[in-house]
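Aim 2 progress update. The chain analyzed this quarter is reproduced below.
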Amino acid sequence: MSELQVISELQVKGKYGKFGGQYVPEVLMPALEELEEGYERYKNDPEFLAELDHYLKDFAGRETPLFFARNLSKKYGTKIYLKREDLVHGGAHKLNNAIGQALLAKYMGKTRLIAETGAGQHGTATAMAGANLGFETVVYMGARDVKRQQMNAYRMELMGTEVVPVESGSKTLKDA
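Predicted structure tokens:
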């Protein structure tokens, strides 16, 4: 398969050949269509991209360094570098995505962020982005996950996020 065929196939909405697509409740389709329109509108907008770059650099701490893993390189007889995404503000790469999504929501005129989380890293990143951009933020988390990850739930609350424990089903991310 040539590179041109791959690019052509990837341009079909959410599909790659016969694979992919959206499997979501019909009630969510208008919101997903609005999101897609917003993304298409702002993905190349110079003002949006400059602001995104600002937050990624000055808030998240990007670009993160490469670390030469001397011992691993010696052991395996090659040069191994580790990308230090753990150095992003908050300790996880998830903030990169959360900032982009929150900024897109801002440009789309939204005033509230909602997210789901299991161990709490995505919720924490969403809370950080929401607090920085002035959003009301709500994170749904399985009740069992809230108990297991109390520190992350607390961190979200410290940033002004409402953490909603989900009591139904397995009381975990699956049902949040």
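The beta strands are 15-16, 19-20, 66-68, 81-83, 112-117, 136-142, 162-166. The mean pLDDT is 90. These observations will guide the mutagenesis experiments scheduled for the next reporting period.
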